[in-house]
Amino acid sequence: MKFLLSLLLVLFVPVANAENVDIGDIEVEYHKMGNGDPIILINGFGNPLDYWPPRLLDELKQNYTVITFDNRGVGNSTAGEKKFTIEQFAEDTNKFLDAINITKVHVLGFSMGGRIAQELALSHPEKIDKLIIYATACSGTRQIPADSQVMEILSDEKTKPTEMKKKLKTALYPRGFDFSTLPKSKEIVSDKTLSLQQKAIANWSGVCNELNNIQKPTLVIVGTKDNLTPPANSLLIAKNIPGAWLIKIEGGMHPVMFQYPEKFTNIILFFLS
Q1: Which CATH superfamily hosts domain 13-272?
Q2: What does pTM read for this prediction?
Q3: Domain map of the chain by residue range?
Q4: According to the 3-state scheme, what is the secondary structure of the chain?
Q5: What is the tens place of the pLDDT at every residue in 8-20?
């Protein structure tokens, strides 16, 4: 009976509880799980804090304190009054780390989060331990563009951002992908936030000419069939960050971490170790 009671208690203890912290003009919601050196996961366009492969989170938390959070205006993080820009998102991340007393951290940035990670690494290098930049570019105005199908979806001004995101979801995953395997988030991202994020990405002048100032161990990951941020963008980043690793996952599209979660997770763990 004692064993059964203990088992039930384990089963009903949440893996990660949501917490909130004020960082000036906004309140940020975040999750923290695991033990060890901290790693912060910065998410992509319109993605809430729980939109990461369960396998990645489960493996990381064995040896690291894993921190996920909602960017400004996403989920239960408030939007504030400041303009949505990649630079502002990086400063939000910096202030968030200060607020939760993290002085040094590994950083994994996906897509828009990869842009934020680059800005953070340049504006606050003292915060960064190791840097992982996944499926992204070093500029919004100068990047190698997405393929024609994706560009058509992105440039359709008549479609609401939430509908556009649904169309993108179909275009960015391989044919026959089982969408039921993706995390089921309860958080809703508004059309306003999506529109502001989209403009922030498109208007970002970028850091392509400053990447050689990043002096941190860096891993750049991309799928060979990424049709939103083609691999040439990742090659440019890796070539310009001294000593950076570049790993291209064969057959991977933009959300390669959900296509090949085991392979993706093993790459991350190997680099961090």
Answers
A1: Alpha/Beta hydrolase fold, catalytic domain (3.40.50.1820)
A2: 0.92
A3: 13-272
A4: CHHHHHHHHHHHCCCCCCEEEECCCCEEEEEEEECCEEEEEECCCCCCCCCCCHHHHHHHCCCEEEEEECCCCCCCCCCCCCCCCHHHHHHHHHHHHHHCCCCCEEEEEECHHHHHHHHHHHHCHHHEEEEEEECCCCCCCCCCCCCHHHHHHHCCCCCCHHHHHHHHHHHHCCCCCCHHHCCCCCCCCCHHHHHHHHHHHHCCCCCHHHHHHCCCCEEEEEECCCCCCCHHHHHHHHHHCCCCEEEEECCCCCCHHHHCHHHHHHHHHHHHC
A5: 333 333 334 789 9
